[in-house]
Design brief:
Transcription Regulator spoIIAA; five-stranded mixed beta sheet; two-stranded antiparallel sheet; mainly alpha; 7 strands; 2 domains
Amino acid sequence: MLVIKESILKLSEKLAVFKGDLFGAVIAVIIAFPQALAFGVASGLGASAGIWGAIILSFFAGILGCNLPIVSGPTGPTAIIAAIVVASTGGNILNVVSVLLLAAIFQILISLTEIPRMIKYVPYPVISGFLSGIGLIIIILQLSPLLGGETYSSTIKAILSYPDLLRNINLQTLVLGISTLGILFFTPKIITKYIPSQLLALIIMTGVSYYLGFDVEKVAGVTFSVPHTFMPAYSIEIITKYIPLALTLAFIATSESLLTGIIMDSLTKVKHNSKRLVFSQGIGNLFCALTGSMYGTAATMRSVAAVKTGATTKTAAILSSLIMAVVLFKFTGFISQIPICVLAAILIKIGYDILDLKVLKVLKYAPRDDLYVLIAVLGLTVFYNLIFALGAGIVLAALLYAKRVADNTQIKTNTYNPSDYSPLETKVERDSHYKIRILHIDGQFFFGSITQIVSHFDELLETEYIILNYSSNSELDMSAIFALEDIIVRLQAQRIKLYLVVANEKVFKQIQSLDIMPQIGADCLFSDETAAINQAITNTHLEKIIE
């Protein structure tokens, strides 16, 4: 009897979990469906490619991924890069598939490295500037179809088209677009609690357009038939030409998926496996590429909605893909009647949501360096090149960080910092008439700080012994090693002997293993400052100092 009760209890628990996953999947589909349609159209691959991208990616990523309700599919950043891919290949589907497949392979390779665990080291200003840039791109590009114009793949071309567009506005398109935005921004929360504003706007405005007979451009080419399989035609020219685009797409998809994973960790209190998450996304995108469907990522909004509705396992992701396939089969006629301007309005709202507006609250308190990085990444993302923007942002952030650390790295001497010296150090320098000088490197001895450290040794005249204290726990990089060699050469030219004091055992062993040890001298490397002082005093015959 007890066994039966336990079995019933376990079955009840499993049913409760399944129920939560099912409800979570339904909510995720309600959010994902209009987005997938809009992103497919925005990418230039078509609404059908957007829907199938959501179905295929969520299914495979759900099966292979972490046991969390992470729902995947096309997103704003991947849609923008996919649009660039389509524009760069002239719409040649085989070349598009080649780029998407290459990106998926790169993503799988990334999952086998330590890169997924390094996303936390990308500076926030870079992420903020890039995401806000993506949001602005979406808004700028979708204003044209919102007003009845054509869709552009370049922000500059879109902006240049605005004057002519404003002179030839399609009033029916404008009414539908503005009304859609009104629903998206101003629907009361009591309603959006039960039905997302995006789905509400899609249904209402499509109905208005259909029953009033508006003459506006509509979605076309959405079918339930299984997508065709494409075999990419690779050549050395195609691979070398499109590698940067493929790498960018892989990096963006990986980054967005990992950010979603971090958010899911905080919601579910279950830590995800970052490598497995990226691997599953890469495999899913591989199948998306082979079918000419939209590339995608783990989607934050859909995943969070699923969790808050009760989803707890990856079954929610699998169910969401199956439910979406059923919806596509049942509502193909409705989908074909959706006005493009309505999808453009939905995308504009998505672009607005992507904008990192919370950064405005801390702008006046943020360091200037962070603002420089954010503005540079934002400008380059919107008006130049996404690949260059990311690379330039990371490099600029790294250089400015190195500068900050270097500025905080100082050579401390008794002359300028008497309060930082012990009585013994002060006595040694004074009683030796500064033939013995004791210096402290306060901060990191690395490539960013070597210039001021090396130049300091030109100022130490009439000195016979320098005791250099390096107290940091950071090992020397290549620049610092060569700088140390330069210091030794300079001091030797001035007939000054260097005693190097390194307290940290790891750094001490590193220096011992360097090829410059013969120049320093094995008897000139110390782990204790007192021993170095005693050695210098003995060599200068000033024993009375330590009496």
